[in-house]
Each structure stands twice: as structure tokens, then as C-alpha cells.
Amino acid sequence: MAKKTIKINFDTGWDLAPAPESTGHIQINNKYDLFIGGKWVKPSSGKYFETTNPADEQKLALIAEANAKDVDKAVKAARKAYDTVWSKMPAKERGKYIYRIARLIQEKAREFAVIETLDGGKPIRESRDIDIPLAAAHFFYYAGWADKLEYAFPNRKPKSLGVAGQITPWNFPLLMAAWKIAPALATGNTVVLKPAETTSLTALKLAEVIKETGLPDGVVNIVTGAGETGAAIVNHNDIDKIAFTGSTGVGKIIQNAIAGTNKKATLELGGKAANIIFEDAPLDQAVEGIINGIFFNQGHVCCAGSRLFIQESVYDIVIRKLKDRMESLIIGNPLDKNTDVGAINSKEQLTTINKYIKIGKEEGAEIYQPNCALPKNGYWCKPTLFTGVSQSSRIVQEEIFGPVLAIQTFRTVAEVIDKANNTPFGLSAGVWTDKGSKMFNVTSQLNAGIVWGNTYNKFDPTSPFGGYKESGFGREGGLHGLKAYLKF
Amino acid sequence: MNKIKQGFDFSSSPKVDQVGINDRIARITARSIKKESKMQGLRMALNMIDLTTLEGADTDKKVMQLCNKAQHLHDSYPNLPSVAAVCVYPNFVKTAKECLKGSGINVASVATAFPSGHSSLKIKLLDTNIAVDAGAEEIDMVISRGKFHEGDYNFVYDEIAAIKEACGSSRLKVILETGELGTFDKVRRASDIAMEAGADFIKTSTGKISPAATLPVTLVMLEAIKDYYYKTGVQVGMKPAGGISNSKLALQYLMLVKETLGKDWLTNEWFRFGASSLANDLLMQIIKQDTGIYQSKDYFSKD
The domain A274-453 is classified under which CATH number: 2.30.30.700, 3.40.50.720, 3.40.309.10, 3.40.50.2000? Predict the structure, then answer.
């Protein structure tokens, strides 16, 4: 019998009707000022910049641009709040405010989710089920620690630092703000936070929530702007601690800037995680993990599993399963409840991703993208696989921060550990095997801050997160996350 | 009789991870199936039902009523699809066959000492022969779960192969009774054995054991079907049975099929629901979608 080509037909003729999340209940102002000292303050330069929806390039709001003068005002407000109120308040009372923030985020979860999706392009499924609930969970978790610090660090007399300058990225805007603000407040510090310029809206919404909780003026200040605003925070003399999440490039600049000062720092930077599939792994679930690892939030994830290592004996079958699974991914309107992969966060990021796709092709790698139509307006990139790459390929070495996966094979445990660790980064990794002893052997040899076993991209406020090498230093989340805001 | 294929090791069936399965199901159940896609799904589900009665108290009259329901789901609402089959015990096949004559609806019969399967091969073959001779187009057999747990996979394989032979041109559905297997790994292994031994369908449950069909267990079986299809080019059907009583859940099953096996399985030739009360819920939803009015259960016949 002649061998027929066996293929699953995913063109089923049963397509899902559009199911857009309603935007009727959300409130976005035309213009946002700076949140300093518990009040909305106009930027001293009078300058505002636009924030747009990357899915349709429509303008959403005008955001104030803070300069060094505004940052100074914010730091002064934070210092005053620290000296006069926050550092003197009983820890139990501090905790109550943080609980209140957590509850209000839960109450307004739907509004936060929709705004997060509008401003950043991520699927509503993710902002609704992951970003916003996790942000609330972080506040709840750290609220509980506020009056128990001496139990967290027995016999060590923990003391707050003072004013924390915090700079967050555009990939998980509210969640990153929660990761930074919650432990800072729980440990008795005050905050000046700058959200990323393309996604400021949910941080500003958070400012509204904070105002509603009655948190004393100046305990949390939110200043918006781009790199210069961030630099003003980093270089301000009266800041005791810098917490930064973002690119390795900017992380290096910050580290240079604070060298020789008294400022403490935690830097959570880029990554190029190895996701390792052994031949004895539960392959169908591993494929799901590969998908979650690289296409979650369009690959705009510092811990994304962007380097895939498949053991040679199962290479063909894993690739086949991966391609089949990609056929049922729905790409399009981020507000649609069925969307799996949303819009690229900004035009600049799309340019970067396309640059790397071009590099991959030029390096001779084989590219695979599913057959799917992309919307006309907005910034979009198809989920992309590259096979036939090696450790010397740039798409294997450099962080792309997009839905682009570089796939290699390996034969032995020693070989894959060697390759996985052969990177300037060290943020995260994933290991897939059904064998317990192999799991412990491999995970303990991987030089990464977070290693997932038989799953990927799972987050919890109790679990510390942070990297080695050029992925930064310091930990956020869990007990470790408290430590970064304390002195002993 | 087919003997087990040389060198086939069922203990090396692919492994399944429960956390990953549950994650995948969470993605499926989050799908929003509305408007025209909902209507399309509801009609598809109705067309895939094996309308079932498997009670000790079954009578000829009860079976006749069920067959009548199968042919007249809701006559005041025209152009409804019909169900796929009526599923009964072997001694009611003749009755069902007569009632359903010319309707295009198949008669399925359980066999092989359903539901426990505790009997000799001789009895099981006889049971099957009786159902086939009475005209059952489909045979729903149970595997010997005891032998399976003992690790006697050859026994399980040979038994399925023997029943398959006895089925002749009738299609064989092999019930794994997943609620008694304990782990996804074992569900996967039992699926592989059944397919290699010649099953036309693999089916989750008898409906007599809880848990019966679940979305996770169905996913494990669908993945097994897919791997088998890629390996052999042979299509095997899937039938979750028991506990699927509402439309929302039925649509989630179909979504799982759509995203795992695609178009070729989204037909009653390759996918079935074993259910008794699902049909009425689908009818209520179909009419609600059409008219905007959710009617009382009393407007739908219970047979």
C-alpha cells in the first residue's frame, strides 16, 4: 500500500464567533498627571506624551512626562512621608493599608484587566486570569508579612531602608508594580515608582486605588516618563534603594550610575531560558509547556523559554506535535476572550523582533510559522519556530523578547547542561522528564534563578524570582523579596 | 484469532503529566463559544449522541419509548439533526432494531458481561454474537480491568482482538472504564492496547462507576488516538460516556476534539457522547439560541 501523507486537518469549519470583552465599564481619562504626595500634579515641563493601543494604534490617553524637577518633588514627598508617618506607624496598621489595596484591585479586577490589555496588547485571557489576580495576590501576601518581619528574620532586627526608587517594564505593568510596591510598603519603605512609558495606565489606575485606600500622602508616588525620568530616579541623592526590572543594557547603566553610592539595588534583567525536553518526558504536556513558555504574552517575558532543547530520539515527534498545537492558537484582537496570542507591545519592539527573524533566516535557520491571518492595523508577529540553529547563532544567544523560539537537539544529559548554561543570562529554565532522579540531577546543575520541572511560567507570590549573571541580582517574591527592602 | 504483535511493549506507552493535562483543559474551558458558533456546536453535539438506557429495570416498552424519542427529539421544532445511535443491553437489540427501522439511527449494544466484564471469553463472545445477530451495528465492550491491573496486557489485548473478530462488520467500541484505572498513565496504556487490538472507538466509561467521563481523561485518550493515527494512518473514534448532562460541557468536549484532532473527528462517525439526559439540555439551548426564550423542562419529553 502506498504510504499516504498523514495530516490532521485543523480547518474545521467550526470557528468561534467574536467574543470581545466589554469596554463599557472602564474609565480612562483623557490626560493623566503625576501622582505626587497623594495629589495629581502637573508636570513642571508641561509636556505630555501619548499612550496607544498596540492592537489598533489608536490613542488611549495623554501621559505626563516627569523631568528631574518632578522626580525631586516625588522623592521629597516620599521622604517626608517616610520620616513623619510611615516609618512611625505600627506595622499592623501598615499591613491594613496593603490589604486594602489588594482588595480594591480584586474589586476592580475586570477594569484593570481590560485597561492592561488595551494599553499593552496582551490577551484578555492573560490579564484577566494571570496579571491582575497575581498582582492582588502579591499585595495580600506581603500585607501578611508587614507585622511579622521579626519572625521572618529571627534575632536580626530588620529595619526599613527609606525611599525606594522603582522602575518597571512594559510586559507586566500592574504585576511588576505590585511586585515592587507590596514588599516595599510591607517593610516600611516609601516609594517613587516609574512605570514603562508605553504602558503607564494601570500604574496610574493603581494610584487612584491607592488614593481611595487613604494611604498616607507621599507613601507611594508615581511618576511617568521614559528613560530620562528613570535616570532622574536612579541618580537622585536621597534614594536609598533602586529596584529595576528591564533590559540588561539599562541594568548595566544603572549599576554604573549607583556605583560608589549607598544605594542598595535589585536588578531583574533579561533572559534566554533553556527549556529541555528529555525523551522520557510526558511529550504532549511538554509541548503545552513549550507553547506557554514562548508564546505567553507574545514572548515578552524575561523568563520565556526561548531556547528549546529536544533530545534527538524524540525530535521529530515533538516538532510535529508542536506544529499541530500551533495550528489551534488564535491570534488577533487581544480583547477577544478566545485570543491566545495578542499584539506586540510597540512598534519599536516589533522592529526588534523582525530584525531577529531576519537574522535567523540569514544565519541559515529554517523558519516555521502557522497559516494564520494577522489584523491589518497594529503590531503583530506570528508565532515563530527556528530549527537548524546552534549555540553560535545570534537568535540563540541574544534575547529577542518576542514569540520566536530557537530549537536545538541534544544527546546526553552532560551535553544539554553544558549548552543550557552556555549563555550570559541565568534567569530561568525548564526541564521535562518523567524520571525523578533525572529531574533533580539536571535542575540542580542549571545555572538559573528559577527552574521549572514539568511545567513552565508558573508564578506565585511565595516563590522568589530573580537571576544569575547578566539576568541581574536580588530576588523578588517570598521571604527573599522582603530582604531586599531591609537592613539588619 | 489475532495474537499480540511480537515485540510490542505496552508498559512503555507514553507518559502523561496530570498538571499539564489540567492546564490544557483550563485553556479549553476558558474558550467562549457564543452565537452562531454555539448553535453550530449544539447541533453537532445533538447529532453525536448515543441515547442510552442501561438499567436493570429496562423493559421492551422503555426501549421502544427511547427509540421513539430518538426519532422525534422535538417535533415542534423542525430540521433538528437526529441522534447517532440508541444504546441498549443485548436482549433489547431486536426491539430497538425494529423501532428504528429506516430511521438511519444505529443500534448499539453493550456486551462482554457489561459492566464488570467478569466472565469467561466464551460467555463474552456469545454475548457479542447475540447482539450482532440481533442486528446491533455497534458493540460497546468492556476491558478486563482486573487483568489490566495485574499487568496481563496480552490477555486484555487478545480479548479485545477476539471480540473484534466476533463483531464482523459491526463497529467495536472499547470501554476502558477510566474511573477504575487510577492514573492517566494507565488510561493511556489501555487506550494503546485497545487501538492496537482493533478498536474502532475507545470509550471512557460504562456510566456505572464514578468518576465517569471527564475532560482530562478524554484529552489523554484523544492524544493517544492522534499518536496512533500518525503511526498507522488508521482513524479511531472517541466516546466519552457518563456524566455529560449539560450543553456547556458538551461544547467543551467538542472544543477539545476540534483543537486536538481537528475536522475529521468532528462527526458522529468518529465522535460520540454516551448520554441520556444531554439531548434535552441541548434541545433547550438550541431553542433558546433561536427564540431567546429559555423554556421549562416540562416542554421537553423525557423517555
Answer: 3.40.309.10
CATH of residue B123: 3.20.20.70
User: Which residue of chain B comes nearest to A125, CA vs CA?
Assistant: B30
Scan residues 309-368 of A and list those with Cβ closer than 8 Å to B.
320, 324, 327-328, 337-338, 340
> Is the pLDDT reported for residue A208 higher than 80?
yes
Question: For domain A31-269+468-487, which architecture applies?
Answer: 3-Layer(aba) Sandwich (3.40)
Flag whether B131 is in a domain.
yes
Mutate to test the interface with B, among A125, A284, A329, A454 (most CBs of B within 10 A): A284
Q: Is residue B36 part of a domain?
A: yes
CB contact under 8 Å between B15 and A280, yes or no, is yes
Preferred mutation among B18, B25, B259 to probe A, highest tally of A CBs within 10 A: B259
**DSSP-derived secondary structure for chain B:** -PPPPTT--GGGPPP--HHHHHHHHHHHHT----HHHHHHHHHHHHTTEEEE---TT--HHHHHHHHHHHH-S-TTS-SPPPPSEEEE-GGGHHHHHHHTTTS--EEEEE-SSTTT--S-HHHHHHHHHHHHHTT-SEEEEE--HHHHHHT-HHHHHHHHHHHHHHHTTSEEEEE--GGGT-SHHHHHHHHHHHHHTT-SEEE---SSSSS---HHHHHHHHHHHHHHHHHH----EEE-BSS--SHHHHHHHHHHHHHHT-GGGSSTTTB-EEESSHHHHHHHHHHHHHHS----GGGS---
B30 to A15: CB separation less than 8 angstroms, yes or no: no
Chain A stretch 426-455, residues whose beta carbon is closer than 8 A to a beta carbon of chain B: 434, 454-455
Specify the range with the lowest mean pLDDT, choosing from A71-75, A166-170, A264-268, B11-15: B11-15
Q: Annotated catalytic residue: which of A111, A302, A303, A476?
A: A302
Tens digits of residue pLDDT in B240-268: 999 999 999 999 999 999 999 999 999 99
Taking only the tens place, the pLDDT of each residue in A407-459 is 999 999 999 999 999 999 999 999 999 999 999 999 999 999 999 999 999 99
Range list for CATH 3.40.605.10 in chain A = 31-269+468-487
Q: Domain range holding B38?
A: 23-299
